[in-house]
Amino acid sequence: MSRPLKDIPLPDAKGYFGEYGGSFIPEVLQKVMDEITEAYLEIKQDKAFQEELQSLYRNYVGRPSALFHARNLSNKIGGAQIYLKREDLNHTGAHKINHCLGEALLAKRMGKEILIAETGAGQHGVALATAAALVGLECHIYMGVVDIAKEHPNVTRMKILGAKVVPVTRGTQTLKDAVDAAFEAYLEDPVRQIYAIGSVVGPHPFPMMVRDFQQIIGIEAREQFQDMTGRLPDNLVACVGGGSNAIGLFSAFLNDQSVSMYGVEPSGHGLQDGQHAATLTLGKPGVLHGFRSYMLQDEKGEPLPVYSVASGLDYPGVGPQHSLLKDLERVHYVTAGDKETIDAFFELSRVEGIIPALESCHAVAYAMQLAAKLPSDQTILVNLSGRGDKDIDFVMEKYGKDYCPE
User: Fold this and answer.
1) With 0-12 CB in 10 A as exposed, 13-18 as middle and 19+ as buried, what is 96?
2) Do the domains at 18-57+95-210 and 60-93+215-403 have one common CATH topology?
3) 245: phi > 0 → left, psi -120 to 50 → alpha, else beta; which?
4) How far is CA 52 from the centre of its chain?
5) Cis-peptide into 153, omega within 30 deg
6) Torsion over CA of 274, 277, 279 and 280, rounded to 10 degrees?
């Protein structure tokens, strides 16, 4: 039974969401993090800063993003009605621009010269490169070489925008390794640089800060859904890697006990063979990249290799607030595998004319399964966190002959 969250500070003054979160970093870096925390808490209350950010959301990003009733898909399934929060329509094609603009403006306010970050699917990298160009800062993006090959269109975008894309060749050459490399580069010069973390992960204040910037998704969706239907949605569904798009949607509904929430992790090739990134499903608490949360780890506490068809989800940890929500049973954390995800990619494309990001397809896949089990008077709101332009070459090369026979 889920418990209400009204009386739980999220996070507390030390950056903990229950027992998760905090800051497990070297002392020299902690001093810099404390400065970032202080600066962020100041701009949270700064009317001019907030007005500038809201103006950019409206006039640059194109917010509010649309709410769309996917009638064709709903009717084909024959169960609950599916609605999509269209974050894929944002400038740069995903929800990532919401926090990247906030982080870039904060960096500028603090006198930083370089934005540094990791990226998996490239959506965070493109959004941060965009924000850096807008505010006039240098931008360095660390990306695994596997993901560079897989998400080539986004790599090209980052370079056009003026960002330096740094290939990461260690380990699995994917997202976790890109995070490692970016952290190491940040430690070399934390004074001139700021690490603009790409999700609700990392040491305090980043899980709080990224969540706060992403809350606009849920705030808009709550108002839009009530305007469109006259009530709140019965169910929310969002994909979860680090968890920024999901917490952005969930945050506005956490105290509405009538609203069920589902965070969808990648089960990849299957939970039994280790080829997955189902952190909350199979992980246990540990420390990774400066914060405590659920993580996939071996018997020594080292992070396990992870896999997902969606480069933005193959991370062995997850945001600390999601870990608390799991323990409180407020959010149900479920999985979708590669085949279901690719099926959803083509289904949404062909039934509604919307090509979604592979990350978002995990949520679409689960929503389709859920809708089939529910009556037609129930509703499901899916956060369509990104568009699939970046994935089309990879999908057609690997799956095209199965789904697009000549």
Assistant:
1) buried
2) yes
3) alpha
4) 23
5) no
6) -100
Domain range list for the chain: 18-57+95-210, 60-93+215-403
Residue numbers of the chain with a pLDDT score lower than 50: 1-3
Residue 194's pLDDT is: 96
Contact 153, 386 (CB under 8 A): no
Q: State which amino acid sits at residue 141.
A: I
Q: Which amino acid type is present at position 197?
A: I
Phi, psi of 82 (to 5 degrees): -100, 130
pLDDT of residue 4: 52
The 10 Å Cβ neighbour count of residue 355 is 18
Round to whole Å and give the CA distance between 31 and 37: 10
Beta bridge mates, 45: none
CATH of domain 60-93+215-403: 3.40.50.1100
First-to-last CA distance in the chain? 51
What was the pLDDT predicted at 258? Answer: 98
Write the class of the CATH domain 18-57+95-210. Answer: alpha beta
Q: Are 183 and 171 spatial neighbours (Cβ–Cβ below 8 Å)?
A: no
Q: Please state, in angstroms and rounded to a whole number, the distance separating the CA atoms of residues 122 and 389.
A: 11
Nearest to 122 by CA among 97, 158, 88: 158
pLDDT computed for residue 28 by the predictor:
85
- Condensed to tens digits (0 to 9), the pLDDT of residues 250-271 reads 999 999 999 999 999 999 999 9
Sequence-distant (6+) residues with CB within 8 A of 77 are 368, 371, 372
Backbone CA torsion sign across 311, 156, 389, 90: positive
- The catalytic residue positions are 96, 118, 385
**The two three-digit tokens of residue 316, written as one number:** 């062995």
- Residue 2, pLDDT score: 46
Omega cis (within 30) before 233: no
Which tokens go with 128?
Answer: 């941060």
